[in-house]
């Protein structure tokens, strides 16, 4: 059996480069790497800025939700104060106890107002607005409010509880 020897493939060896050429190539490689790192840094910076904006928006949204929940918990207490002060006999309206209760009621209303809560009231003869009012009695044929049963409340521009009204 005869073994044929394959001719060895000659490896191409790069020609020796002059030191200036090698330095130029290295400098080009370094510059390319530096540009790549700079692009990565710019991208990371933009990503981080977007992240901060999303977090800020998320915190505002959460804060708004928490304020709304707290307001919705406080409103029934205020309703009870309103109901209690409306049924005080005439001869007791000047009593220090009743005046104190009315003062507490006013404080609650002021705290809500300071936090962006506005009362939604409806007077007799006003036009019924389904965005602000809830009809609990009557037919809304003429869309006129005949009586307000309970105040509504808005937090900023958003109605969190419509005013309960009778319509005709």
Explain the overall architecture.
- The protein is α+β, with helices and mostly antiparallel strands and 168 residues long.
- It contains 2 helices and 6 strands, in the order ααββββββ.
- The protein has helices spanning 19-86, 96-114; strands at 117-120, 133-137, 145-150, 152-155, 158-161, 163-167.
- β4 and β5 (158-161) form a beta hairpin.
- The radius of gyration is 38 Å and the shape is elongated.
- The mean pLDDT is 87.
The CATH class assignment of the largest domain is: Alpha Beta
Give the tally of β-strands: 6
CATH fold title of the largest domain: Hemagglutinin Ectodomain, Chain B
What profile does the largest beta sheet have? 3 strands, antiparallel
- Compressed to H and E, one letter per element, the order equals HHEEEEEE
Q: Note the beta-strand portion.
A: 15-25%
How large is the count of helical segments?
A: 2
The rounded Rg comes to 38 Å
CATH architectural type of the largest domain: Alpha-Beta Complex
Strand order of the largest sheet: 1-4-5
Instruction: Briefly note the structural class of the backbone.
Output: alpha+beta
- Helix amount, in percent? 40-55%
The protein's oligomeric status is single chain
Number of domains: 2
Stretches with pLDDT under 50, minimum 5 residues: none
| N-to-C span | 116 Å
List the keywords:
single chain; 168 residues; alpha+beta; Hemagglutinin Ectodomain, Chain B; Nucleotide Exchange Factor Grpe, Chain A, domain 2; 2 domains; three-stranded antiparallel β-sheet; three-stranded mixed β-sheet; 17% strand; elongated
């Amino acid at each position: 059996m005869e073994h044929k020897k394959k001719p060895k493939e000659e490896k191409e060896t790069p020609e020796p480069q002059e030191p200036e050429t090698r330095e130029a190539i290295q400098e080009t490689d370094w510059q390319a790497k530096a540009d790549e790192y700079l692009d990565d840094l710019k991208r990371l910076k933009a990503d981080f800025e977007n992240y901060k904006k999303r977090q800020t928006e998320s915190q505002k949204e959460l804060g708004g939700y928490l304020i709304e929940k707290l307001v919705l918990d406080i409103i029934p207490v205020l309703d009870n104060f309103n109901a209690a002060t409306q049924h005080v006999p005439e001869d007791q309206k000047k009593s220090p106890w009743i005046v104190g209760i009315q003062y507490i009621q006013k404080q609650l209303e002021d705290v809500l107002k300071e936090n962006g809560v506005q009362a939604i009231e409806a007077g007799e003869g006003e036009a019924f607005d389904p965005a602000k009012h809830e009809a609990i009695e009557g037919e809304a044929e003429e869309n006129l409010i005949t009586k307000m049963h309970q105040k509504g409340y808005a937090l900023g521009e958003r109605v969190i509880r419509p005013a309960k009204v009778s319509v005709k």
